[in-house]
Amino acid sequence: MWVSSCGPRRRCHRIRTSGRGRHGPPKCEPRGPGQPDGVNRTSQDRSDRPKPSAQSTEPREPARSEPSPKPKGQDHGTRLTVLVALGANLLIAVAKAVGGLFTGSPALLSEAAHSVADSLNEVFLLAALRRSRRPADSRHPFGYGKERFFWSLLAAVGIFVMGGCFSFFQGFEALKNGGEESSSGYVAGLAVLVVALLAEGASLFRALHQVRGQGGAGRLRDPALRTVVAEDGTAVLGVTFAITGMALHMITGQIVWEASASFAIGALLVGVAFWLGRDAREQLIGRAADPESSGRIRALLEAQPEIDSVEALLTMEIGLDSTLVAARIDLVPGLDSEEVEEVAVRIKRSVAHTVPEADQIFLDVTDAAAARSASRGDGYAEGPDARGERGGA
Fold first, then answer.
1. Residue 97 predicted with pLDDT over 80
2. Which residues contact 308 (CB under 8 A, 6 or more apart)?
3. Fewer C-beta within 10 Å: the chain N or C terminus?
4. pTM of the prediction?
């Protein structure tokens, strides 16, 4: 709430308060000659104000630096990785489908469905890369960063339905038909799978190379890159299962080996889909920043001499390189409105400099003692919800 009061010849500082502030009432000063009521003094008029001591300003000089620019060029590498995976999966899907129809192999048909699902998922990921970088507008003031998580969730659903469920269906169909099947043409089917294994391995190598080039396994927080690595990794394992099942079928003449390979491929795809879907769900709901970043932000706030205490720190990932930070802080007594504004601007710059992805920063100045007193007076128990620490660091 904005509070102001002043006499006819006095100027008033307008202070925003949260609860019953203990920083005193609005500070009124005599109005200068020719200066209308309610108008702030210019920077020249403020020269008579005592400057902050060197002890409070000198340690925070690095905070005046602007935050580092976001590495948007990393999307180019991720897009290239997705395109490589898409091209490989389309060629492999056609080859597997032709081979599976020719040989009647359930394992090969399961792998064909797997490649079709992967190809569709790559289309989803390309849409995610393009749409998530749209600038913020009035309808979406925090941008479109969460589109990346939404399309990744659709990719996980595609892996589950088109890959996992179809593989289980092929396994049950093979067991239902029973008996021995002719192995004519299985040599050609095995050749197709060997070529598919090489192609999937090359795509996986490309994805892992990008992961290493962009900071190691920590870069897997990018849902698009994480999905490509998961798809290519499961594809290599799935092709291995299919080759093993077809080879054992040729040796023993029992279809049960290929049915088992289809079940193994289905279980693998369902597990990967659950892992990817669970992570996308957490990011869509609103996941807090990693503990390391939250700890650095809290330590920086607590180190400021103007901050008496940090009552709550709330963070949320709103995009791949974008994090929202909201802190409820209690300031030391005696600061007027202009000093509070200067402190807030400096703290925001310091946070953005320390954690570059923190591009949405909000500070709520409150009176901690008054809030606790009011909470106890109303008879409410003081817990994490009362302190506003749900999801905070």
1. yes
2. 329, 330, 331, 332, 368
3. N
4. 0.64
Give the range with max mean pLDDT: 215-229, 302-316, 367-381.
302-316
Residue 74 φ then ψ, to 5°: -65, -25
Burial class of 58 by CB neighbour count within 10 A (0 to 12, 13 to 18, 19+): exposed
Q: Are strands 10-12 and 28-30 parallel, antiparallel or unpaired?
A: antiparallel
User: If DSSP states are collapsed to H, E and C, what string results for the chain?
Assistant: CEECCCCCCEEECCEECCCCCCCCCCCEEECCCCCCCCCCCCCCHHHHCCCCCHHHHHHHHHHHCCCCCCCCCHHHHHHHHHHHHHHHHHHHHHHHHHHHHHHCCHHHHHHHHHHHHHHHHHHHHHHHHHHCCCCCCCCCCCCCCCHHHHHHHHHHHHHHHHHHHHHHHHHHHHHHHCCCCCCCCHHHHHHHHHHHHHHHHHHHHHHHHHHHHCCHHHHHHCHHHHHHHHHHHHHHHHHHHHHHHHHHHHHHCCCHHHHHHHHHHHHHHHHHHHHHHHHHHHHHHCCCCCHHHHHHHHHHHHCCCCEEEEEEEEEEEEECCEEEEEEEEEECCCCCHHHHHHHHHHHHHHHHHHCCCEEEEEEEECCHHHHHHHHHHCCCCCCCCCCCCCCEC
Q: What is the pLDDT of residues 178-197, one digit of tens each?
A: 655 555 667 778 888 888 88
Cα 97 from Cα 114, distance rounded (Å): 10
Of residues 17, 4, 26, 15, the one with CA closest to residue 367: 17
Question: Which residues are 322's β-sheet partners?
Answer: 319
> What percent of the chain has pLDDT above 90?
13
Over residues 254-307, the pLDDT tens digits come to: 888 888 998 998 999 899 989 988 888 888 888 898 899 999 999 999 999 989
> Greater confidence, 180 or 223?
223
Distance of CA 352 to the CA centre of its chain: 18
From CA 207, how far away is CA 85, in angstroms rounded? 9
